[in-house]
Amino acid sequence: MDVADARALWEPAGVYLNTASFGLPPSPAFAELERALDEWRHGRTSWEPWTEAVDRARRAFARLVGAEPDDVAVGASVSQLLGLVAGSLPDGTRVLAPEGDFTSLLFPFLAQRGRNVETRTVQLGELAHSVDERTDVVAASLVQSATGEILDLDAVVEAARARDALVVLDATQACGWLPVDATRVDVLACHAYKWLCSPRGTAFMTLGDGLRDRIRPDAANWWAGPDQYGTYYGTPLRLAESARGLDLSPAWFSWVGTAPALETLLDIGIDAIHDHDVALANRFRAGLGLEPSDTAIVSTDVPGADEAFARAGILAAVRAGGLRASFHVYTTEDDVDAALDALAP
Ligand SMILES: Cc1ncc(COP(=O)(O)O)c(C=O)c1O
What pLDDT, in 10s, does the model give residues 237-286? Predict the structure, then answer.
């Protein structure tokens, strides 16, 4: 399926340039979700078939980022999953992160300061150079939420490896349009409701070698047991040995929508989506007189953009006078041109 054919699977009502806030579902995902909601409404099934979507989604995500399904834990948000990692760091751990990164990446580490876990922030462009003997963990978003800037992952991984520091990556603004290889880092967390076109409430975390046993399962639950359908009661604590032992018990309907959304994106192919999204972002940049770039998110100051888009019924994010427009598989060249027309003086 190429991108042009795939677009028929989405039904945006107008010009939607706000995937960096939340993505739109492809029709197979919406249909499966509707079906499950209907089953729920009328009490037509037990719940077990809904949970099959969790492992379907886990397998699809593993394929998307080149990981093994056994190395993928699932949860409800990036902050919840990274909270497990941050809470398991030894007292006194020193974390290095970009200044101004998204709070769901920063706060889980900052919240550990009572245990002398110290989080130092530096400018994004200085991150790799700033890794030194005081660094135990480097944590960053692969793509910055506010600006769309892509992390220099090669430089960060090289610097971290030289110091035996862990690399923790938030790929929420990357997975779905940017090819991502989770095996390059120690921890990769991603929420699926943006570029993975899923309902909010489904997140993944991949773990590198040896990490599973270093993370304390603070939200241990019935679902994370060795037998997903047989760990309901009593002691002792028993959890799956794979990363699944860190799973949060699943919010069924969000997962029902997530599995088919991921499978649809894999069918289209992330390389093709990448080329499509970046080409549209660059068409938009050109129309605004900006140099081309390598990202699907365009962040720029356009005076009056908020009102102009509101008048034209175009959805994008406008924050503090800055415009953030994002371009995904369902965006067309006509959408870009309509947005530029709306912004024309
Ligand atoms: C980089 C990044 N990480 C995470 C999130 C969402 O955080 P959470 O999963 O904790 O809701 C966002 C949402 O904007 C984001 O941009």
Answer: 999 999 999 999 999 999 999 999 999 999 999 999 999 999 999 999 99
0.70 exceeded by pTM = yes
Tens digit of each residue's pLDDT (9 = 90 or more) over 70-127? 999 999 999 999 999 999 999 999 999 999 999 999 999 999 999 999 999 999 999 9
Q: Indicate if the alpha-carbon torsion angle 67, 108, 146, 96 is positive or negative.
A: negative
- Among protein residues, the one whose CA lies closest to atom 16 of ligand 1: 145
Among 103, 172, 193, the mutation site with the greatest number of ligand 1 atoms within 8 A of its Cβ is 172
- Would you tell me how many other CB atoms lie within 10 Å of the CB of residue 307? 11
CA distance 26 to 144: 25
8-state DSSP, 287: H
Cα distance between residue 342 and residue 325, in whole Å: 13
Residue 84 to residues 69, 75, 104, 250, 278, Cα–Cα distance (Å): 19, 11, 13, 16, 34
Cβ–ligand 1 distance for 191 under 6 Å, the answer: yes
